[in-house]
Amino acid sequence: MVSDKKLDFKIDYRNLKIFEEFNSRDPKFPIVLSSPHSGTLFPAEFLENVAISKDELRSSEDSFVSEIIMNASNAGIPLISMNIPRTFIDVNRDKIELDESMFSNPPTDNGTSTCRRCRVGLGIFHRVVYPNKNIYDGLLSYEEGMERIKNVYDPYHKRLKQLVDKCTRKFGFCLLIDCHSMPSMICNIMNEEKALDFCLCTLFDESCPTQMSEFLSKSLEKYKYRVDFNRPYAGAYITFNYCQPRKNIYTLQLEINRGLYMNENNFTKKEVFQSVSNNICQSILDLGKFLLDFKK
Predict the structure, then answer these.
(1) Please, are residues 151 and 12 in contact by the beta-carbon 8 Å criterion?
(2) How many domains does the chain have?
(3) 222 within a domain of the structure (yes/no)
(4) What is the pLDDT of residue 106?
């Protein structure tokens, strides 16, 4: 149970680099990569006011994902990677996915959401980390929350949209691949003889043409990985909201089993890390080459 004490603190955003951007000047393929959950830069004031350890906060992190896909970006694919962790603010959520019970002075206009993610504590501001541990021992200021949106969430989405629009102008269409990782525990309990390695999330074939997702699936399967579509995830905010087929903008959420490349208990890479990264990057580049001829 969270106490009703007020957590009155302010974040100094002046020296926080919210995101990193790579290889966006001259795109070579009609793809944009985003990594919204691999950030590790915790604002100091935030760490001073949470009730759990930094390692517990990191359990929600998509560790090393931006590094995994970097070689694909270096071949000519724009990449935007979030520096700020999702336990501070989750840019893969809608602004209205806000749990009013987290605030000492919630808004009175009730313009927020009652979605399932809010109810379980995983809205735009996370209330808990696995296994249901409260992040805060007290109530946040609503104004401080709005500052997080203004200074972190909005700049990330503004730049991501610019990159997608630039790609669309150059190639006539764009595939935004939103890159994530998933806990190995989830991948091991789906009742198949081999754990799931990758999930390709396409909103059940609504976010991109099936030729795109199936090409990526077959490319990964060449390396003997097990790939499935839309389970355990079908796509989240970025996949849904950036998808605009009438404007030739498509999306695909890529989920990687963390157990493939890292030790989830101590946040360290496995020896096969580079091999896994090479396979993923080559599959993305093969998809990029396929897409160059897709509209011809």
Answers:
(1) no
(2) 1
(3) yes
(4) 85
- Quote the tokens at residue 255: 């989920």
Q: What is the CATH number of the domain that holds 170?
A: 3.40.630.40
pLDDT on residue 112: 60
pLDDT recorded at residue 132: 86
pLDDT at 295: 65
Tell me whether residue 91 is in a domain: no
**Domain region containing 165:** 17-42+61-86+149-292
Q: Judge whether 30 lies within some domain.
A: yes
In this model, does residue 111 exceed pLDDT 70?
no
